[in-house]
Specification:
The chain is an alpha+beta fold. It has 15 helices and 18 strands. It folds into four domains: about 5-55 and about 375-540, Multidrug efflux transporter AcrB transmembrane fold, CATH 1.20.1640.10; about 60-65 and about 160-210 and about 365-375, Alpha-Beta Plaits (2-Layer Sandwich); about 70-155, Alpha-Beta Plaits; about 215-360, 2-Layer Sandwich (Gyrase A, domain 2). Helix content is about 50%, strand content about 15%. The strands form five sheets. A four-stranded antiparallel sheet has the order 7-8-2-17. A hairpin with a 2-residue loop joins strand 14 (about 305-310) and strand 15 (about 315-320). The longest helix is centred in the C-terminal third of the chain and has 32 residues, at about 505-540. About 40% of the residues are buried. Residues about 35-40 have low confidence and may be disordered.
Amino acid sequence: MGPISFIKEHWRLLLLVAFVTGAMVALFVPGGIMADDSYVESQDDNPTNLEYGLGLDGGTRISAPVVGMTAENIDAGAVNEEDGSVDRQRLTEIEQTLYDNDEFDLETGNARVSVDDDGNVHAEIFTDEVTRAQFAAALAEAGVEVDPEEDIRDGVTAQTRAQIVETITSKINAAGLSGGTAYESARFGGEYYIVTEVPDMDPDELRALLSERGIVEVVAYYPGENGTQTNETVLTGADIATVDPPRPSERGSGYEVPVQVDSNAAADYQDRMNDIGFTGEGVGQCSLRGDGETISFDHADEQYCLLTVVDGEVVDAHSMGPTLASSMADGTWANDPSFFMGAQTQQQGAALSVNLQAGALPAPLDLEQEQTLSLSPALADQFKLYSLLIGALSVVTVSGVVFLRYSDVRVATPMIVTAMAEVVILLGFAALIRMPLDLSHVAGFIAVVGTGVDDLIIIADEVMDDGDVSSQRVFESRFRKAFWVIGAAAATTIIAMSPLAVLSLGDLRGFAIITILGVLVGVLITRPAYGDILQRLLTDK
């Protein structure tokens, strides 16, 4: 028999072997198939490449709404109805009017006017200190008339929520927190919560991570008119291209974060430093000092300081060094635009690095309304052990029942092996995509074993009906009949579980996803392979 004929005849078994082999590689080869070096290092204490969620690794889950108010579908005169083009200048004008309003004082980043994919304009403010009437009055100053009760609602747009989830996920990854996730959860009444889960982190640490908006600015603090000092934002987090980890400062105490400025912003920053004197009389002229937490602005002399500001708080102040000033003065710095942002403590430096890498949260979370779940690692280890024992017990129980039912190792042994292969494939898939396994997923695996063996029993009962099954034609006829029953049951299960897998229903979602994946693996891979094995054991083929 040639290789092509062999493949054609045994393709179902070969497909099962290929998937099991790939799953074993994903599970046990260091780093799996697609992991990078940092992921490999984080898994040093784990014999497999599996990641675990809160229920099996300990950690914290915080669920909180977003602070904000939205005026939806406003008539801003910014979208051309004929060609759908957007007047960005008009959007900026409305946004600036919100910032300039005398009734309330919006901080940087707390207003946004945007256009969604359908061409609708939305205005948002991210504060809980403004009433709907005040918001409507501020929009009216910009020429936008809205009804405070009908057109304005609490909460933010779907676009903003999606950006919050993306930013929190980036913060988790930038902080090196393996297995952490963030997602959006809908509640009854139309309220939305942002859910963040991070294994091996206590509530205070996660709360601190989420409470920081991460709005980073470099502010020039320099002499103005009549002996006053001027604050001017010269760089924002959006102008930073790359960020390196923090390190002890070479200029003395504190820490520094090496950053590379985006090439589009570098020339303007260089020109502004030259214009306001930082590269001339301002070189080395900053004597502001801090106590590790705050910077003192009590000074008599003129100051030329570059302030590192995070969420409105000054975390460091330093002067322009002569080497950097010289390269800016002769215009060469913009060709390699890098410098250091300072922090007084290592913790501030680490937070600054994370915020620069992940970007700023579009809106703050209302942590006063948070719902917190925390599980200690010791208790999670117990759950992990119990899950393993329950899984082993389910396999032993199913194996015993199958052997009692058939009393034929030719039928029972392939059944158990095939069912276990299904679980291995699912575990390999989880390791491949780095799905954090939780107790709900364990329940899904147990359900997959049960439903899988049920389907295999249907196949065995059908093909062995009326005793004689030595004929290949008879076997194939009976197998097709059984497979139709299994296929219909699989379709029903997928349809029933799909809403649970799509909706944000907490732990039910993990159970539904594993169950659906198990059904698909069973119908497409393991059930046909079991039929192939049974055919070779029971027929004359």
